[in-house]
UniProtKB/TrEMBL annotation:
Source taxon at top rank: Bacteria
Protein name: PH domain-containing protein
PANTHER family registered for this protein in UniProt: BLL0215 PROTEIN (PTHR37938:SF1)
Matches recorded under InterPro entries: YdbS-like_PH (IPR005182)
């Protein structure tokens, strides 16, 4: 899905999937709901209608969690030397795009938990326009994404390094110290 949206004249600088923490709370909620529904179906007195409702509810919880996990899996943020893109969607593909020439300001934010787990948010502002890429949350290593976009937008015309080409690196903190 990714390569079909990158033009032959573009060079990919960053490709990143959202940090797993973006989906963990949804999966944990689904597990808790599933366990509660399954326990209710086994511990409550035998009533065929109630049993069916609880088991079908459990199935719906698992299906919803699977779809949300699949949507997280296919969502990617890509920065090329010409634009920033976010690709998402399982059945219907959505591609949000902003040319780097429209970027006027960049800000990244990391909460304490984000610093500990290696994710953050990147705010991209454009010239007086509201874009679909205004906020990119749960980005792995947002300093590197921020640095790469800053280098492309505000830096010189020299060759830009490629960042995060294989996803979040393990041990990235130890190399920066």
């Amino acid at each position: 899905m990714l390569d079909e949206y990158i033009l032959p004249t573009e060079r990919r600088v960053i490709r990143a999937r959202l940090h797993p923490v973006a989906i963990v709370h949804k999966v944990l909620l689904a597990v808790v709901l599933f366990v509660l529904l399954a326990l209710g179906a086994t511990l409550l007195p035998g009533n065929a209608l109630l049993d069916n409702v609880l088991w079908y509810g459990s199935l719906a919880v698992l299906l919803t969690a699977s779809i949300q996990t699949g949507e997280w899996w296919v969502e990617k943020v890509v920065v090329t030397d010409k634009r920033v893109m976010r690709m998402r969607g399982l059945l219907t593909h959505h591609v949000d795009m902003m040319p780097l020439t429209k970027v006027t300001d960049l800000t990244f934010q990391r909460t304490l938990l984000g610093r500990l787990l290696g994710y953050g948010s990147l705010h991209i502002e454009s010239a007086g326009q509201v874009q679909g890429l205004e906020l990119l949350s749960f980005l792995p290593e947002p300093e590197e994404v921020y640095g790469a976009i800053s280098e492309l937008v505000f830096g010189g015309k020299r060759q830009t390094r490629t960042y995060l080409s294989r996803g979040p690196r393990t041990g990235a903190r130890s190399r920066r110290r």
